[in-house]
Every structure is written in C-alpha cells, then in structure tokens.
Amino acid sequence: MLGSLQNLVRRTIRAALARRTPGRTIAGGLAATLLLAGVAFVAGKGIASAGFSTHAGTAWLGTTPRGSVTLVDATSGRPSAEIVLPGTAGHRLQISQDGDTILVYDPSTGVLTKIDSGRLTAGPARATVPGVRLVAGAKAAYLVDYGAGTAQRIDLATLENVGPVIRVPGHLGTAGVDGQGTLWVPRSDDGMAVPVTSNGLGTPVDVQGRGSSMAVSIVGGRPVVVDGTKGRVSVLTATGVAWSAALAGAGSGAALLAPSTQDKGRLPLVDKAGGRLFVVDTDAHKVRAVRLDTGGGHDLGAPAMNGDRVYVPDQTTGSVLVYSTSRNTWEPSFPVSGKAGPIDTLPENDAVYFNDTESSHAVVVGADGTPRPVRKFTPARPGAKKSPSPAGPVLPGSTPSVPATRPSVPGSGPSGPVTRRTPGPGVPSRPYGKSTSPGIPTTPGTPSDTPTDGTSTPTPPTTPTTPPTTPAPPTTPAPEPPGAPTGVDAAPQPGGSIRVSWTPPSGAPKNISYAVSYTDGGDSSGSVQTTSTVLTVDATRLVFLRTYTFSVTAHTDGGDSSAATAKARSGGDGKSFTVDVSKTTTDPVNPCTDLPNCRATMRQDPTHDSAATGEAPQGSTVVGYCHKDGQSIGDDDGVRSTQWVLIESGGKRGYVSTLWLGGANAYQSVWPCP
C-alpha cells in the first residue's frame, strides 16, 4: 500500500512537471533580473525587480526560516514535496525553474544546487564565492560577479563551466538573459548594453544611459533596458535600439521596480517615489500611466502582469494590489500573509504565485483573477507535543521550523536532504499535526465510602499488598554514526575549479548530508555543506596552481562519519613542452644569436613589455599550465600568434609565446587561464 502511494505521488508530480511551458524563471528576493529583486541593485539607486516562474500548474516556492523549497500545485493548493537544504536556514534562496531543470542558489554561501525533479532530491552542487549572482534564461545560465565585472556561463545539467570567464569591465547594472541565451549587461560608464555569450563580448548597444542606474528585463524574449535615472525604457535588438520611450512623470532618479521577465509584450513598472504604475506595450509602442495611491511609505515589490491585470505586492501590509487594464480601474486587493514581510512574485502563462518567504502562506491567482490560498506546509501548533512520525511519506509541516543546531528528530533540520512528500490531488491523506491515538477510557470508580444518609462508617482494615510493577518502556537504541563516504575523487576542471565526487556509505538514510572541507595547508581553506554527492568548488574559492586536500564527512542523526580524502591541484598538473627559440633571430626584444645558449624569457603578463620572471633554456622541458591571449608575436617564418602559455621552469613561473613551445597551435594542449 505504501509503495503504491509513493508511486502515485511520483506520477502526479511528474505529470505536473510535464505540463510546464518553456522558459526559465528565477524567484528570490536577492535575484537580479533574474536579479533585480527586493533591494536596489549593485550599480546604485533606482531599480529592483523580482523573479518569475514560467511553468503551468506547479511552482517551487522557498521558505527562508526553514531553508527549504516546496513544490506546490496550483489546482489543489497543496504541497507535493518539500526539500530542506543543509546550511540554508535563514537565507533567502533564489530558485530558477525551467521544465525539469530546477536550480536553487544561496547567495549568502555561494552554493548552487540542482534539484533532481524525478527523484525529488538534491542533485549536483557547485560552490562559488558568496555574492555572485545566478542569471538564467530559457537557453542559458550565467554566474555573474557584478563587483568583479565577470560572467561565467554554466552547463544547466552538470553546473560545470561552459567556455572561459568573460570580463565585462565597468560599473554594471542588473543583467538578463534573452530568448537566444545571450546575457545583456547594462554599463553606466558609457551608457551601453553589452551582449555576452560563452564566446566573449559582442558589439555594445548605445542606450544613452551614461551615468544612469539601469537594469535589463526580458519581455517576450527580447531585452529591454530600464533606465531608472532618466525614466526611460529601450527595446534592444542585436544591432541597436528598436524602440525607446520616456516614462512621463517618472522624473529624474525615479525608484523604478521592474520584473525580471514577462512572457508577453507588456512590461509593468512601478515608480515608488512618484506613486505611479506604468504599463509599457513593447509591441504597440505605447505607455500607460496610472496613479498608485497606497498612502505613502509602503514597501512595494516588483509588479507582475497576467492577462489584463497587473499585480503589485505590498510588503508593508502583506497583500497584493490589483489593477485591471481592460477596465482601467483598481480592483480589491487580497492578502497573502496579512502582515509585513517579503513577498516573491512568480507569474506564468495562466497563473501568478505570491509567496510569503517567511511563513507557510502563498496565494495563486489564475486567469480569472480569483486568488486561491496555497499552503507550503502546516506550521507546528504552539505547545503541541511531538509524536513519532508515522511510517511512509513524511508530510510537509509535520516537523517544526529548521533549528539552528542539528536536530535529534530524523529529517527535521539541516542535517540532511529532507524530502517530504504528500499525495497528489484527489489522493486521500492522513491528517497531520494532530494525535490520532484513541483516548484512554475512564476506569469505573468504586462505591463511595460515605453513605448517602450522612452517617460515618469506619473504614475496614485492609491487608497490605505489593503494588503492581510497571514494566519499563522499551529502550530505543540511539542511532549510530554513518560510515565514511567511499570512492572520493577530486578532479581539476578548466578555469581552476575542482570537481569532487563520492559514493554514499553503505545503508545511507535519505536524510544524509555531507560536509566538504578543503585546504592547501596554508592560508586558503573553506567548507561547504551539501546533500549532493557531486560538488564543484569554484576557482574563485581556490588559489590557482595550489594543491588542495578535500575531506568529505557524512552526517546523519547518529552523528558524523570519519573523513574520506582526496587531493587535486587547481589548474591541474599541466603538460610538458620543449622550448624551441631557434626561429627568434629577428625578434626585436629577445633575439637568438647563439642557439645553444639561447633562452626563452618568461614574463609576468602575456606581453614583452611586462617584467621578466625567469628564463627557460633552449631545448629544455618545461611544464605548461594554461594559455592566455596577449601581445601578437612573430617568428622568422612570418608566423604570428597572440597566445601565450604560463610555464614553470627552474622553480619560477611566467608566460612565453606559444611559438617558442612548438608552434602556433601548441597552446591548445592546455586549458585557458582563469
């Protein structure tokens, strides 16, 4: 019976996932256009936005105090599964959704986890530096470091790097990924929007935004730059600006709230300071403006549009404002939590989810505009006593909020991946949050010792008896610590990252989690919690060409296992090259005139103008680690190359031209330098 119920749950969830429409969405208060959310973004004042869901029927919603993500069904309003991720309690998670590809990113720790939507468990994970942002679209995803000015495309299946790190220098606004997989990054230094792919930078488009606070929204698959300083929107193509419009009344330095993406051609914007709602029709090239009167001082969220209605979350009152574009009027608002707190907005083709990230409450609104409550879990009742969990699937909410320390109740906290399943729509489920054990019947009493006429009757003597012995309750043995993970492997990856994988210990329970620590034996170390058995430690956490020891420890309710270890070098062990400078007699900087005594001069950077770091003798064997684009160098035969290889010779490292290591194509045997 239990197996049948579990199979029915899985079939119901898979059927709901199969109904999704194409298109990636990101939900999370820290996400920027996918990351424009919640607060003013990194480039400065002005624009913020929320992320959105694009699938029909179901959505993954986060709960900050629990450190969990819950799959909910719009039709039933019930949760289908809840996954608790270790180490994320209290962090506002960023959730990216596209079909069966579900990514959960914790900006506080920099850990990105893929959810296995078939098994409803955590899949591969990747550890980058905190503060990096996930920016995703239907065809591509990038890790963007706005402060450092870098973008790294990642594979949606493995989370590994695709191509080299792309550098986008300047003061950057919030980026977005269009329908073709191109990342668009607005830059205030020159007022340009810069297209980025895994191949590098494209031709910037001038949006006249010099000195402005800008962000990109994706509308119908097209990038639209929202300029909060000048109060203007610009619809982009690969070659220029297709259409732009001023937001009349927005004024200079407007505090605009913009959604990260809209499936249709209309973009809603909220001017918090000016108290206006703008609806920009990018197809008809029209802008509508209406007054937005909340009484002032309200914390509004980024708007969302579904059908002919615009929804504006009011995070001061915990409710949602509703504007009908067809009737040109404000309709009654509806509550989400009914109290102040953050609200994530996740619209799709025919529904919009409003998620109170601090509680179990959420609301879904269909095409008819009717709000329906959704429960992510059932909160524990104050003073309620815990009872042993029933056998079978654990229902969402049957455990209290995730505690700060490791819990003693299996599956109740950050000690491991907790997947709580409930029956799908139409499947009866047992009640939870209440005791189902029958009450204890009252023992019939004995006749009273006091007669009804009020006279006193002496108590007859009694014979002492031995009180009955109460049997001791059965002792439940304490759970034992798990065995150590096996088969730990650390493999260097292009760009300096290291992929760590392992096999769970024998008999591992479902709520097992892992702590992965790493150190170079010196000043570079760190640790990551994960529920996955595959973790990529990003190059930004490591020092290039240092060797690290990785220790993997398993954790269950019984405690921690012993550690299993593996070693790997960031950047790998390199390849062997033979130095050949025989064709440098015409080199203007380092000519070879006496071949047996010639040397290849190593440089600090890939250019002849940088400082020399050492020399590699003619004919010697050196180790090359990576290649980098730099100054164009030519040999005596007229062959030229801009590629330089970072080599090690005589205990020193530096760059030399690929021409002196075997020819113009010699560099291809090593990875690109980070």
UniProtKB/TrEMBL annotation:
Q: Which UniProt keywords apply?
A: Carbohydrate metabolism, Glycosidase, Hydrolase, Polysaccharide degradation
- UniProt record, GO biological process: polysaccharide catabolic process
What SMART domains does the entry give? FN3 (SM00060)
> By its UniProt entry, which SUPFAM superfamilies does this protein fall under?
C-terminal (heme d1) domain of cytochrome cd1-nitrite reductase, Fibronectin type III
Residue ranges of the region described as Disordered: 364-508, 556-582
Q: Which CDD domains match?
A: FN3
Name the record gives this protein:
Fibronectin type-III domain-containing protein
- Species this chain originates from: Actinoallomurus iriomotensis
The lineage is:
Bacteria, Bacillati, Actinomycetota, Actinomycetes, Streptosporangiales
